[in-house]
Write a structure and sequence with these properties.
The protein is mostly helical. The protein is built from 10 helices and 2 strands. A two-stranded parallel ribbon has the order 1-2.
Length: about 220
């Protein structure tokens, strides 16, 4: 992946990788590998016509454990998970292949109470809502309204409002609830990495504590 190439080409400097989902961070730092399963276009085309309930049922038949650990409202991820499971029926492929890396990474995590994170997410939705609606209207005009990417977090809520399926207040609340769920999933994911040094942003002096940690480890 591109990020790894950049990291490998930079010599003699300390690098800071900021942001990203737990999965992305694991990929960049070589804590995990992608499956290597190529897209199955025919299978994808068939699964695109499935409802979320049908996709969940299909994945449950293949791998019940994976279904329990995936966003069951994310159609794209469900389809990809099913695609991988079908591939694993015919050849040995692991979704994550642990890999050793010569580079040493130090992980810093910033956190806060879950209630504070929810509040931050809610304010963010309120702030970007009008721009989001404008973006979705534009994508509809360009012919991308049925794209699976518009079924992702917050976008599907905006679509529901524009389609008159939900009132504006209901759509915004749905977007906020989806983000709350996303926050919980990310927290669960990051807990798997026991190397993360966590700093609570609600604790006085946390910035200095982060700076001290970075300096201690060669920052």
């Amino acid at each position: 992946m591109y990020a790894r190439e950049v990291i490998n080409n930079i010599k003699g400097k300390n690098l800071f990788i900021v942001g990203g989902t737990g999965f992305y961070i694991d990929l960049v730092t070589n804590r995990a590998e992608v499956s290597g399963v190529k897209p199955d276009i025919d299978l994808r085309n068939r699964l695109e016509n499935y409802t979320l309930e049908q996709l969940c049922y299909e994945l449950e038949k293949l791998n019940k454990s994976k279904l329990q650990n995936i966003d069951q409202k994310n159609k794209n991820r469900l389809i990809r998970a099913i695609e991988i499971e079908y591939a694993q029926l015919t050849r040995e492929t692991n979704n994550f292949k642990k890999k050793t890396d010569k580079k040493e990474y130090k992980f810093i995590g910033l956190t806060a109470s879950r209630e504070s994170l929810y509040l931050f997410a809610d304010k963010w939705v309120d702030t970007i809502w009008e721009d989001l609606l404008q973006e979705v209207r534009k994508l509809k005009h360009l012919g991308f309204y049925d794209s699976f990417r518009l079924n992702g977090i917050i976008y599907k809520s905006a679509k529901s409002f524009l389609d008159n399926s939900l009132s504006e207040n209901e759509a915004k609340q749905q977007a906020k609830y989806d983000l709350h769920s996303y926050i919980r999933r990310q927290q669960t994911w990051f807990k798997r990495n026991l190397d993360i040094k966590w700093f609570d942003t609600q604790v006085s002096g946390y910035r200095q504590n982060v700076e001290d940690f970075v300096e201690l480890h060669g920052g």
